[in-house]
Amino acid sequence: MNQALPATAALVASLPFPTVLVGLGDRVIVANAAALVLFPGLRPGLPLALSLRAPDVLDAMVVSRRDGSNHHVLWHERVPLERVFDVHVAPVNDIEGSAMLVLAFRDLTELRRVERMRVDFVANASHELRTPLASLIGFIETLQGAAREDSVARERFLGLMHEQARRMARLVDDLLSLSRIEQTLHLQPADQVDLGDVVAYIADTLSSMANQQGVTLKLDLADGVLVRGDRDELARVAENLIENAIKYGGAAGDVTIGVTHINHSALFSVRDKGPGIAPDHLPRLTERFYRVDAGESRSKGGTGLGLAIVKHIVARHRGRLDIDSKLGRGATFNVYLPLFRPNDA
Ligand code: ADP
Predict the structure, then answer these.
(1) What residues make up the domain containing 324?
(2) Which of 31, 127, 227, 298 is a plausible cystine mate for 35, CB 3.0–4.6 Å?
(3) Checking DSSP bridges between strand 83-92 and strand 191-194, what pairing results, if any?
């Protein structure tokens, strides 16, 4: 029989994940809306195999019918997108229908991506820490051995050791900031913050770094741009973006920093005239530890986490980060933030 009771059909139709009920000859009886998104060609009465070309799943259906047993099979879809599903195949017997099978598809793609990111993250963080640690151990061993009585070498090594230790401390600080922001990502900060004030303060603290590099910070900060935010976190955004502009773009000229109102939002922008960023790097720039040139970043004291922190803070503020750059034409980082409204208080 190729029919299900209305209650069975309604149950399948109501489920949120792709679910298909098939009858004799593996012909489709009911496919819910989510299944039709996954397999637009599914039609009642047509064999499932016309839409689902997955030998493992079809084999599991044969076994499930034969034994009356449930099965889980992984199905990798390669086109149009690479996705992976856990397909649950189970026999169903309602009163009218017999020898029916239900197939439920659980999309594991996101879960797998997050798991891969976690594994990559741990590997990257360990690698970043291991490098300065290895050089610290090397210096300590040299000081205990060959350079024990050499006061000139000792001074030099202590300086290098200090630099490596500071690098590790910066990395740990950035990792802790990132994890703190992630824990509160769902909570939009609610304080009234004068964005121009925060940016002016940070530009001031970075002015000596800019001077050392021969960079002029040009400020164009509108008064009274009040955003809904967390002052310390917005200061980190300003610090990371201005510092990057000085580090990577400053050698080629001034850095222009703006705060203004735009279309019912606040806009904080940092523009440099540096080498810019190639288009293929742009989408990945805010990933943790992603750097265009890892050697250059490390030599400038970078941890590779600055833009990831910026992205998370902006997301927590329900704002947006846009990066606009062309190779050889400098880079502009625009942060759009919601304005503070009196009833936010
Ligand atoms: P880092 O600690 O390496 O500076 P970020 O997350 O702040 O880490 O930046 C990631 C990478 O993005 C940098 O290593 C650099 O390659 C690139 N980048 C960031 N800002 C700029 C800029 N203003 N101009 C050119 N490249 C930049």
Answers:
(1) 187-345
(2) 31
(3) unpaired
